[in-house]
Amino acid sequence: MWSNAAFELAPRGGPTLGGTHVFISGRRNPTSGAQPFLDLGDARCRFHGSVTSPAVVVNRSLLACVTPACLSPDCHGTPADSAFLSVSIEVTMDGVYYTNSGRRFTYHTPAWR
Q: How far apart are CA 17 and CA 1, in angstroms?
């Protein structure tokens, strides 16, 4: 199991349709000196506690994944309103142990015209 490395994500939101490329940058653990993203063969991003997306280890401090579509009823508004849903995003390097960072990704409905 790897430690809950401090990480940032960009962008922090995207459309409910999914497809947003999210870049997650991590920092070296000051106690152990370990790099945050050591490729152990099954890197993944987990959204909303259950939906996972494959991740690519760009280097030892940068991970990339693509957001899945948001299937929660809370993600879908009508043309008259704007729906937003903030969901947790966690990462794993081995497909088993996920971080517990508290980072959030905000889904929003596409603009209606």
A: 32
Q: Give the pLDDT of residue 30.
A: 63
Asked if 5 and 24 touch (Cβ cutoff 8 Å), the reply is no
Query: Structure pTM?
Result: 0.80
2 domain residue, yes or no: no
Q: What average pLDDT score do residues 62-87 get?
A: 76
Domain that holds residue 53: 7-108
CATH number of the domain bearing residue 60:
2.60.40.10
Number of compact structural domains in the chain: 1
pLDDT confidence tier of residue 99, bands split at 50, 70 and 90: confident
Angstrom distances, CA of residue 71 to CA of 25, 48, 57, 111: 26, 10, 26, 18
Residue 30 CA to residue 19 CA, distance in Å, equals 34
